Target: Glucose-6-phosphate 1-dehydrogenase
Amino acid sequence: MSSRIIPVQPFDYVVFGATGDLTKRKLIPALYHRFKDGQFDEQSRIIGVSRSKLTDGEFQKLASDAIAQFVEKDYQDAATIERFLKIFSYVVNDVSDEAGWGDLRKALRDDPKIIRAFYLAVAPDLFEPIAEQLAKTKVYRRDARVVIEKPLGHDLASSMEINDGVAKIFKEDQVYRIDHYLGKETVQNLLALRFANTLFEPIWNSAHIDHVQLTVAESVGAGTRGYYDESGALRDMIQNHMLQLLCLVAMEPPASDDANALRDEKLKVLRALKPITNGDVSKTTVRGQYRGVKSEATAVASYQDELPDDKKGSHTETFVALKAEIQNWRWSGVPFYLRTGKRMAERVSEICIQFKPIPHSIFDHAEGAPRANKLIIRLQPDEGVKLMMMIKDPGPGGMRLREVPLNLSFAETFTERTPEAYERLLMDVIRGSQTLFMRRDELEAAWSWVDPIRQAWDRSSEPPQSYSAGTWGPSGAVALIERDGRTWYEGNN
Ligand code: BG6
Model:
């Protein structure tokens, strides 16, 4: 069998915002795993950049602490960590400080065979000034890559402004917009499931599918992240992660796995989404906010309790459920129900494809009426795919029907560690593969669809519906789907 680790070309990865949370929690651990697996070696370099006055040694210490805290214990190997830390160096740089840019230039190698990538783990208002400085100080190269991630704006206009700023220097084929959901193994598996099997594609349409449900539930709260109250669940989860999932489920088969072929198809889905405007917003969307629960055993704070005093009374939603429709031949009449929230009953991300019922039952006298098939794609945790089917309950006693899952559990089938999304995405940047990154037009199409919902909510004086922490959201979300004679799939129905 050929090796599964394909080494990448040596690189200089420059991380702006090197002392920030994202770098510590995600980027350093992800790069460590790729290094440990031999995907790159000491010929590559990681150059941290930020305003804090650190030495190389202090930055290496920060990296070593991040590994200790955020890499699973079983994978922390002292000899590997020591080798890994040697590729770390640090440059003190304030965007407006000329000296810092000179130091960065010196830290980079001029060899064109060494891939140059800039990860901007900083606030989006710094993207444009950084890009301009990179060009001005000749750190920019036409083959360099720039990585950016959300919040890429808070609406269409601000997102365009950010993209325009970056585009002053970087061409679209150099820009890698991260949506980390696309780097998740199980999300990529959706592509394999749909396009590497003949079974599903012929029935993947409105003739056979009744509706689709997408749930991304988190058990954690919004915490004290200042950003969240400005954003809310619609911008934080629906505009990006959930619409990307919807695209992968709904898109036409692309001609190849070429980045633009795939992104063209996703874009068509986004553009075919039926606008949810004023009058429809109250019928097809529900927003919620969690309230605390107190019992003898536990006490969970409400969203309001977590807010600083000047934000109390905020109408920011921590939960959204909505019904989306795709106006094209394949999906006409097939609703896509999306829901996501914080402090929900459990952490689960799942896609449920509900097929239509059988056209005629010959089992009128059998116990247990035939239930329509469901395909459940579990993204996290316990990744796997389940096809719910009807069988005859074995044994005597007449024809009794029972629903059982044809179950592919990844955890049981594959024993190797599943790489984290950032591992795949960081290496794709070096490989020059944009397939799992959002193109500008996709991002803007997603904002165009989300903006009218947000605006209608902002115009309304109604607060979000309240739901108890640890539940599946407000009653309005149940009503939203029940009005259509359907129910949310919660693992047991
Ligand atoms: C982030 C959101 O993009 O995704 C967070 O900003 C959310 O609010 C997170 O918690 C969820 O990601 P995951 O990988 O834990 O499902």
Residues 218, 236 surround 6-O-phosphono-beta-D-glucopyranose (CB under 6 Å).
